[in-house]
Specification:
Helices cover about 55% and strands about 15% of the residues. It is of the alpha/beta class. It has a single domain, classed as Aldolase class I (TIM Barrel). The protein has an eight-stranded parallel barrel with strand order 1-2-3-4-5-6-7-8, surrounded by six helices. Helix 1 runs parallel beside helix 3 and helix 6 packs parallel to helix 8. The protein is globular, with a radius of gyration of 19 Å.
Length: about 210
């Protein structure tokens, strides 16, 4: 499973990229707003750090306006992926993007028929939001299982980008369910390689080495 970072924070992206396990970045208007920087400049900076896909989301809700934004965003860098909401106007825009060879990440997916539709039209990525489903008492991980079965049944090339991952267990279960990608905040990312026994083991090794010296 590929690891994407769900952030617009430059320092976090650099830190993850330095580890050699960052495969891409997803952003959204809320994440960009937290940084207090010009949107285009921020996306340019992110694209210079990573060569992987960088999702940049439109803020329009009408197809024609979405396409205006999409074409402008694609001019920033070749690895920019256009993020569209999974609504009727977004699906119309997706069809046009596919015809123009603009890669798209369809976001805010909460049920398998949405995932089926965007794959049929030709989305590059489909982003089911697991944590938000869990928040309202639904089983977010079941959505990943359903999507994996549907995509495998019909050999769709759309990649499942598991989003709204709230903790390492979400990442683990998404990987076991067959998600192609997991995108997560840096606070979750930095927990992926941690375990208290690792810290205790290292502490003992170093202590023993000091005694030997």
């Amino acid at each position: 499973m590929k690891f994407f970072l769900d952030t617009a924070n430059i320092d976090q992206i650099k830190a993850a990229n330095d580890m050699g396990i960052l495969d891409g970045v997803t952003t959204n208007p809320s994440l960009v707003a937290r940084e207090g920087k010009d949107f285009r400049t921020l996306v340019e900076q992110i694209c210079r750090i990573t060569s992987g896909p960088v999702s940049a989301e439109v803020v329009s809700t009408e197809c024609r306006a979405m396409m205006t934004e999409a074409r402008e965003l694609r001019q920033i860098a070749p690895n920019v992926i256009i993020k569209l909401p999974t609504i009727a106007e977004g699906i119309k825009a997706l069809k046009i993007c596919v015809a123009e060879e603009i890669p798209v990440n369809m976001t805010l997916v909460f049920q398998p028929l949405q995932a089926l539709i965007v794959a049929k039209v030709g989305a590059k990525f489909c982003s089911p939001f697991l944590g938000r489903l869990d928040d309202i008492g639904e089983d977010g991980m079941k959505l990943i299982h359903d999507m994996r079965q549907i995509y495998d049944n019909y050999m769709f090339e759309t990649e499942i980008l598991a989003a709204s991952l709230r903790h390492p267990f979400h990442v683990l279960e998404a990987a076991k369910a067959g998600a192609d990608i997991g995108t997560m905040p840096y606070s979750v990312f930095e927990q992926l390689w941690k375990h208290p026994l690792t810290d205790l083991g290292l502490e003992k090794f170093l202590s023993d080495w000091k005694k030997l010296k």
